[in-house]
């Protein structure tokens, strides 16, 4: 063969790959063994998935043969070359008769050691033992003729043993060989052809001890050697994949678990004297295996095959050592209480001063993996329970991980004996007690500490047991009236009921039910009423506080705006501006009652109010909350605060606590000029004398605004409804919300169009240039209303709207003016007066503002007309002012001359130099 003496052996990798090809894929449906299947072969009990015959095993790889060539019969694997001795369902192993081969001194041997081709087994727990003098064992790849592993057995020349054992041997570990899918052979070679010793090579389980080796080598004909094979479900699927294929899933017991099986492939192995000192591996999942769950034993491959084991019904108690007497009763403050997700309770701990004693309760925390270890690195702790006295840990094996729950005790003494030594007794803290722990045979295994009834916590610490508040616990322990106490609680039925409140059986007495209902109803009703009253008070207080905040905010903002306006005009005006509180205004207007409304306009409503000092006032309130409205109201305050004229409505003060300020004026009781001129379904009772006087007073007020105030003020909204009439029919110009301050050195400003249709100056409307002549045009419309008695825009009997100014100018051109004048004017006035006032109106309505007179000129013209009329009637004008006295002292000649000149029709050559010279002697 070219290899000397060769022992053929398929390797682990070869078995796994070829086995999956030949048998696993043929399994189409899961088949349970029938009752006719053999349960035994000789003294070996057969365990499923193995079985004799294809109908009794899970798959072909698990078929067995029972051979009756000896007594008792022998149980062989399916290929008939390997004898099976026992099953271990816990570790998924079968134990077989160890195969061996010997090489005599002449070096002749050609016996196959073992053939596992196409079988689902692994040799990972076996070693190849070679004993002999000066012999080398090589594992050869039959295909490539390469050596993948070797070991040599060397012994002294004086050794005369047929097969040396003590010093002539070497071991090859199957688990550390790098196998592939090729066929492997063992090549034994003698290094000394003159050696008289023989050589033996055999497989053995890695846990076989020294004495078993010696007995087998010395008398292998009567003494057997055990090897083991590990099985798995060889379909190259993970547990997750296998569970989804229910028709072939092998773990049939509902108390079984599935574990992935991985094959390790060594990447680097270093041996020294047959010992591995360093290795590295790669691995892959090649199948799965089944095991019973923790505390269950049996066959996981059969339904109900896993049963609760006897050992799980008893407790497992641990106490590693009782040697140490240096106990810690109070852990340090720096003790770590967490490792990963596991909470560490005293008496357990991680370092000196944190555990009760080192030998029993010391744990180790891996700071890298955050795993908690018990007993060095024996198992990974997943839970510690003080209440149950249990510790849960898991140990990793080759293929899987096993989780175990153990019960622990503090010491191997009874409570009675332990309590005699206070130096070591653990249950000495307040509210803790000692518990004797017994096994299933009622034998004492030791003691541990628990909190007394009604307490919970750590009984091993001072103050560790805390009172349980049963009344507030999530578990309802009392359906009656519950009162908690230290370590206990009381529970009684409510008044009017009886029974067992611990069971929820408090029953009402029928005779007391009505009375209890009345009492309960009255209590609930009183409580609801009290609650409602409190809520009303709270809401009222909340609203008051909110209103106060709003009022304060509005006041600060409006006061700031007002200061800005006033600071640009006068430094002393603010001192003359009264500020009223909103509370005072609300009281004066009866909380803005509708019966107090004097009038409503486009921008607001005017209310009648009575102040606390019994003064009657008019209060203007905006109904539109816009920035422009706020600006207009502030503007009006600023203007009226600086004007003191008998024919201008007096501003008494303002309220800044509302979003748009409230304006407080003197009360004018007789309505507006528009109300007296335009009487619905009737004639105006306003006489021609009153009309002339009102016109004169209004012209004087506007002239004062234009030229006599500290700064020129253009009214910007002159109309008959903005001229108030008091009880003596004196005129009062009002509504300065749209007015504008004009520096004395300026003649106009450019601003947005504002005013009332019919009164707006056409030139201002076209150019947006506001001048004092814009107010003159609007006043000319008022004079026209006084003369004709119609509104600027009026409707005819046919319902057609007419423009009064256009009709007036047309009547002038057509010489039909008298047809347009109101009858009462024609009856009370003279034709000369009508012509003079018509001429004044005509020049006031000139489309070019530069050709219109000033308000001062208009005022003097009206004063002259009124003086002439009063003189003819023989009435002296006594108004108690300097202007009136001056008018009376002027000669009739000069007055008549001025009237004649302004009345000269359309020549427009009239000059006011003479009148101005006259006015120098008559200061205003």
Automatic annotation (TrEMBL):
<dbReference type="InterPro" id="IPR001881">
    <property type="entry name" value="EGF-like_Ca-bd_dom"/>
</dbReference>
<dbReference type="InterPro" id="IPR045274">
    <property type="entry name" value="WAK-like"/>
</dbReference>
<dbReference type="Pfam" id="PF00069">
    <property type="entry name" value="Pkinase"/>
</dbReference>
<dbReference type="GO" id="GO:0005886">
    <property type="term" value="C:plasma membrane"/>
</dbReference>
<keyword id="KW-0812">Transmembrane</keyword>
<feature type="domain" description="Protein kinase">
    <location>
        <begin position="592"/>
        <end position="868"/>
    </location>
</feature>
<keyword id="KW-0245">EGF-like domain</keyword>
<dbReference type="InterPro" id="IPR017441">
    <property type="entry name" value="Protein_kinase_ATP_BS"/>
</dbReference>
<keyword id="KW-0067">ATP-binding</keyword>
<keyword id="KW-0732">Signal</keyword>
<feature type="transmembrane region" description="Helical">
    <location>
        <begin position="513"/>
        <end position="539"/>
    </location>
</feature>
<dbReference type="Pfam" id="PF07645">
    <property type="entry name" value="EGF_CA"/>
</dbReference>
<dbReference type="Pfam" id="PF13947">
    <property type="entry name" value="GUB_WAK_bind"/>
</dbReference>
<dbReference type="InterPro" id="IPR049883">
    <property type="entry name" value="NOTCH1_EGF-like"/>
</dbReference>
<feature type="signal peptide">
    <location>
        <begin position="1"/>
        <end position="19"/>
    </location>
</feature>
<dbReference type="GO" id="GO:0030247">
    <property type="term" value="F:polysaccharide binding"/>
</dbReference>
<dbReference type="GO" id="GO:0004674">
    <property type="term" value="F:protein serine/threonine kinase activity"/>
</dbReference>
<dbReference type="InterPro" id="IPR000719">
    <property type="entry name" value="Prot_kinase_dom"/>
</dbReference>
<keyword id="KW-0325">Glycoprotein</keyword>
<keyword id="KW-1015">Disulfide bond</keyword>
<dbReference type="GO" id="GO:0007166">
    <property type="term" value="P:cell surface receptor signaling pathway"/>
</dbReference>
<feature type="binding site">
    <location>
        <position position="621"/>
    </location>
    <ligand>
        <name>ATP</name>
    </ligand>
</feature>
<dbReference type="GO" id="GO:0005524">
    <property type="term" value="F:ATP binding"/>
</dbReference>
<dbReference type="GO" id="GO:0005509">
    <property type="term" value="F:calcium ion binding"/>
</dbReference>
<keyword id="KW-0418">Kinase</keyword>
<dbReference type="InterPro" id="IPR025287">
    <property type="entry name" value="WAK_GUB"/>
</dbReference>
<keyword id="KW-0723">Serine/threonine-protein kinase</keyword>
<protein>
    <recommendedName>
        <fullName>Protein kinase domain-containing protein</fullName>
    </recommendedName>
</protein>
<keyword id="KW-1133">Transmembrane helix</keyword>
<dbReference type="InterPro" id="IPR000742">
    <property type="entry name" value="EGF"/>
</dbReference>
<keyword id="KW-0472">Membrane</keyword>
<dbReference type="InterPro" id="IPR018097">
    <property type="entry name" value="EGF_Ca-bd_CS"/>
</dbReference>
<keyword id="KW-0808">Transferase</keyword>
<dbReference type="InterPro" id="IPR008271">
    <property type="entry name" value="Ser/Thr_kinase_AS"/>
</dbReference>
<keyword id="KW-0547">Nucleotide-binding</keyword>
<dbReference type="InterPro" id="IPR011009">
    <property type="entry name" value="Kinase-like_dom_sf"/>
</dbReference>
């Amino acid at each position: 063969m070219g290899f000397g003496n060769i022992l053929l052996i398929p390797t682990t990798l070869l078995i796994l790959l070829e086995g999956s090809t030949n048998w696993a894929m043929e399994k189409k449906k899961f088949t349970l063994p029938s009752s006719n299947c053999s349960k035994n072969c000789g003294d070996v009990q057969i365990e499923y998935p193995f079985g004799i015959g294809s109908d009794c095993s899970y798959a072909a790889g698990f078929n067995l043969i029972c051979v009756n060539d000896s007594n008792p019969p022998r149980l062989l694997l399916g290929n008939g070359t390997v004898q099976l001795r026992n099953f271990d369902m816990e570790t998924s192993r079968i134990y077989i008769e160890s195969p061996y081969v010997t090489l005599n001194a002449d070096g002749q041997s050609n016996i196959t050691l073992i053939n596992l081709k196409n079988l689902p087994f692994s040799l990972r727990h076996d070693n190849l033992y070679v004993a002999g003098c000066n012999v080398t064992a090589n594992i050869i790849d039959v295909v490539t003729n390469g050596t993948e592993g070797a070991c040599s057995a060397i012994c002294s020349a004086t050794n005369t043993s047929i097969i040396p054992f003590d010093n002539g041997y070497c071991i090859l570990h199957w688990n550390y060989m790098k196998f592939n899918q090729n066929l492997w052979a063992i090549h034994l070679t003698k290094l000394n052809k003159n050696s008289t010793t023989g050589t033996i090579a055999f497989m053995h389980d890695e846990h076989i001890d020294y004495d078993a080796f010696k007995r087998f080598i010395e008398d292998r004909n009567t003494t057997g050697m055990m090897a083991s094979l590990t099985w798995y479900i060889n379909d190259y699927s993970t547990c997750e994949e296998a569970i989804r294929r229910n028709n072939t899933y092998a773990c049939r017991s509902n108390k079984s678990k599935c574990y992935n099986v991985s094959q390790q492939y060594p990447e680097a192995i270093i041996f020294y004297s047959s010992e591995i000192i360093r290795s590295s591996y790669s691995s892959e999942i090649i199948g799965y295996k089944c095991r019973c769950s923790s505390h269950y034993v049996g066959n996981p491959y059969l339904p109900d095959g896993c049963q609760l084991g006897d050992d799980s019904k008893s407790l497992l108690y641990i106490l590693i050592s009782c040697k140490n007497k240096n106990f810690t009763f109070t852990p340090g403050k720096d003790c770590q209480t967490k490792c990963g997700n596991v909470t560490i309770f005293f008496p357990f701990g991680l370092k000196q001063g944190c555990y009760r004693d080192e030998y029993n309760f010391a744990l180790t925390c891996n700071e890298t993996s955050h795993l908690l270890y018990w007993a060095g690195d024996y198992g990974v702790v997943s839970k510690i329970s003080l209440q149950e006295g249990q510790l849960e840990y898991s140990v990793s094996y080759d293929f899987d991980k096993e989780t175990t729950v153990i019960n622990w005790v503090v010491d191997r003494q009874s409570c009675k004996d332990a309590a005699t030594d206070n130096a070591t007794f653990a249950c000495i803290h307040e509210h803790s007690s000692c518990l004797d722990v017994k096994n299933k045979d009622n034998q004492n295994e030791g003691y541990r500490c628990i909190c007394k009834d009604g307490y919970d916590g750590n009984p091993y610490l001072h103050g560790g047991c805390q009172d349980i508040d049963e009344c507030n616990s999530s578990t309802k322990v009392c359906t009656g009236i519950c009162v908690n106490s230290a370590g206990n609680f009381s529970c009684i039925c409510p008044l009017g009921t009886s029974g067992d409140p611990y069971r929820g059986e408090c029953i009402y007495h029928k005779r007391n039910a009505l009375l209890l209902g009345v009492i309960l109803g009255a209590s609930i009703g009183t409580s609801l009423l009290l609650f409602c009253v409190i809520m009303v008070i709270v809401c009222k207080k909340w609203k008051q506080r909110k209103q106060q905040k709003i009022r304060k905010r509005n006041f600060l903002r409006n006061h700031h705006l007002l200061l800005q306006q006033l600071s640009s005009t006068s430094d002393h005006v603010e001192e003359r501006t009264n500020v009223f509180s909103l509370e005072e205004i609300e009281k004066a207007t009866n909380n803005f009652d509708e019966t107090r409304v004097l009038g409503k306009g486009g921008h607001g409503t005017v209310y009648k109010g009575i102040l606390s000092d019994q003064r009657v006032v008019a209060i203007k309130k905006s109904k539109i909350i816009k920035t422009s409205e706020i600006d207009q109201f502030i503007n009006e305050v600023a203007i009226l605060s600086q004007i003191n004229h008998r024919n201008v409505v007096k501003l008494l003060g303002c309220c800044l606590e509302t979003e748009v300020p409230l304006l407080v004026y003197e009360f004018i009781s007789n309505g507006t000029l528009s109300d007296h001129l335009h009487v619905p379904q009737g004639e105006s009772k306003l006489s021609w004398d009153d009309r002339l006087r009102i016109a004169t007073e209004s012209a004087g007020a506007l002239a004062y605004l234009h030229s006599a105030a500290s700064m020129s003020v253009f009214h910007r909204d002159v109309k008959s409804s903005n001229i108030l009439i008091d009880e003596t029919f004196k005129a009062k110009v009002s509504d300065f919300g749209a007015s504008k301050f004009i520096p004395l050195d300026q003649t106009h400003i450019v601003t947005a169009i504002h005013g009332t249709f019919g009164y707006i100056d056409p030139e201002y409307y076209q150019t947006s240039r506001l001048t004092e002549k814009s107010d003159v045009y609007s006043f000319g419309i008022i004079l026209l209303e006084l003369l004709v008695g119609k509104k600027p825009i009026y409707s005819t009997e046919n319902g057609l709207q007419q423009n009064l100014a256009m009709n007036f100018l047309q009547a002038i051109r057509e010489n039909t003016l008298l047809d347009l004048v109101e009858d009462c004017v024609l009856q009370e006035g003279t034709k000369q007066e009508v012509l003079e006032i018509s001429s004044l109106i005509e020049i006031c309505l000139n489309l070019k503002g530069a050709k219109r007179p000033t308000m001062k000129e208009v005022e003097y013209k009206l004063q002259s007309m009124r003086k002439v009329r009063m003189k003819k009637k023989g009435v002296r004008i006594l108004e108690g002012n300097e202007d009136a006295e001056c008018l009376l002292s002027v000669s009739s000649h000069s007055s008549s001359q001025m009237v004649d000149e302004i009345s000269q029709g359309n020549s427009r050559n009239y000059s006011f130099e003479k009148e101005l010279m006259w006015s120098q002697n008559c200061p205003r």
